[in-house]
Amino acid sequence: MQNPKELLFSVLKHEKTDEIPWVPFAGVHAGKLVGYDATEVLTDGDKLFKALMEVNRLYKPSGQPVVFDLQIEAEILGCELVWTTDGPPSVKTHPLSETTQIPCLCTLPGKDDGRLPMVLDVMRRMKKEVGSVTALYGLICGPFTLASHLRGNDIFMDMFDDEQYVKDLLNFCLAAAKNMVDLFVEAGMDVIAVVDPLVSQISSAHFEEFLHEPFSALFSYIREKGAFSSFFVCGDATRNIEVMCKTNPDSISVDENVDIVAAKNITDKYNVTIGGNIPLTTVMLHGTQQDNMKYVVDMLDRIENKTNLIVAPGCDMPYSVPIENTIGVAQAVLNTEDTRKMIENYVAADDDIDVELPDYANLSRPLVEVFTLDSATCAACTYMMGAAQKGKDHFGSNIDMVEYKFTEKENIARCKKMGVKNLPSIYINGELKFSSIIPSREELFAAIESVMK
After folding, report:
1. Which candidate among 249, 333, 374, 428 keeps its CA 20 to 30 Å from the CA of 269?
2. Helix or strand or coil: residue 355?
């Protein structure tokens, strides 16, 4: 009988298995298990190691990430970070916001830079303690999101105005990613997950023009180093699933914005494993243990071909996910038939939260509503909110702007009432204008001006 790590390896090799592997993406949530906040586990190696060992003990994973923080490389390369106690840090400043100069290769992340000494030490400790039975994931920031961290929102206009600059910057970020691969593989990581949430915010045409080559090169490099690869994208990446597959990763991870059944039909065509996509807030954070068990059982029932499948949260788990909910997920994956019997008569309760929508027809000035998972912790949401903020900065008191974070129950109810399907999205005067596509300055300004009285 295969141990959990061997099971995951078989699935990543695209072999038929009798069981399905389970990978909890417990980043800062790991700290909650042992009483540490997010900043503590992302800056203190001993606390991080203790938290990760508790994840391993409680959730019985086939694989687990060591650190889920897409800002490690950005911090080394000069981005200032904003820290929080219940989520990973976010990028505050962009070193290339006022210049199109490509950084020198001498600035690429090395083993002694930033928080990498701590991260690499914890990786080696985890490898020694659980590496024989648990596959360890090393998460790196993908080239496009790293380029966005360095350049800021202007990267989206650069894709129209200065194509060669974007390609040159992506090549620099590819070199940074390869350095991280070298360090993480040497530290014992079995799977290198290239996490690039902003891929969901561009068109498939832009993906093919700018991202196909760097991602193909990166996954080939990971394979040469003897590790498995995962292409991890948050947000509504539906339109890009096929072009992602064409870069030849071993696996793809998607979140709740993607119909996993439809996506798996595409990944199966390319013999790529797919992972996902338990909803982070409505189910894991705000649901009951039975809600979580039912979601997993129902998802598995909807997927006919269970080869090339990993069950996982849609992205980095929120810090405050109840421990019993994740245990329920593990139970549903590891003992599906027993769980099915346990929940066969369970009916989820509806939250009776009534929200009042604005009187959009009689607003005194345009209202820009930004629906996000949480702009403080979700990279795609950060840049969508950044685009909206540029509109607010330009129009000032002539417009109103508000962010609705999906982590709050009232905002979940608001999304349901308004019919918000994908996050992040921008609505203007109650009408959807931008869904999982970050607008350029000109596009957003034009949309606002079109409703001005």
Report:
1. 333
2. coil
pLDDT higher than threshold 90 for residue 254? yes
Please state, as a whole number, how many other Cβ atoms lie within 10 Å of the Cβ of residue 13: 12
Q: Can you tell me the distance from the alpha carbon of 24 to that of 251, in angstroms, rounded to the nearest whole number?
A: 15
3 state DSSP class of 394: helix
Q: Is residue 414 helix, strand or coil?
A: helix
- The 10s digit of each residue's pLDDT in 86-98 is 999 999 999 999 9
Both tokens of residue 171?
A: 């090549």
At 145, which CATH number?
Answer: 3.20.20.210
Backbone conformation region of residue 226, classed left if phi is above 0, alpha if psi is from -120 to 50, else beta: left
Using DSSP, state whether 366 is helix, strand or coil.
Answer: coil
Encoding tokens for residue 428? 């203007």
pLDDT digits (tens, 9 = 90+) for 138-166: 999 999 999 999 999 999 999 999 999 99
Q: With beta carbons less than 8 A apart as the criterion, state whether 315 and 374 touch.
A: no
Q: How far apart are CA 299 and CA 354, in angstroms?
A: 29
**439 and 290 in one domain?**
no
In 225-272, alpha helices (H)? 241-245, 260-269
Query: H helices within 135-237, ranges in order?
Result: 143-151, 154-161, 163-186, 204-206, 212-224
Amino acid at 64: Q
Distance, C-alpha 310 to centroid of its chain:
16
State CA 418 to chain mean position distance: 24
Count how many domains the chain has.
Answer: 2
What is the distance between the alpha carbons of residues 256 and 278, in angstroms, rounded to a whole number?
6
Range of the domain at 372: 360-449
Residues 6+ apart with CB under 8 A from 184: 120, 123, 138, 140, 192, 227
Q: Report if residue 350 sits inside a domain.
A: no
Sign of CA dihedral 423, 429, 433, 437: negative
What pTM, to 2 d.p., does this model score?
0.89
Q: Which of 287, 316, 342 is the last residue of a domain?
A: 342
Rounded distance, CA 163 to CA 271, Å? Answer: 32
Q: What is the DSSP string of 17-75?
A: -SS--B----STHHHHTTT--HHHHHH-HHHHHHHHHHHHHHH--SEEES---TTHHHH
Quick check: is 352 in a domain?
Answer: no
Q: How far is CA 120 from CA 178, 179, 188, 192, in A?
A: 15, 13, 9, 14
Q: Tokens 């999101």, residue?
A: 145
Residues 91 and 74 sit within 8 Å (Cβ to Cβ): yes
Cα 422 vs. chain centroid, distance in angstroms? 14
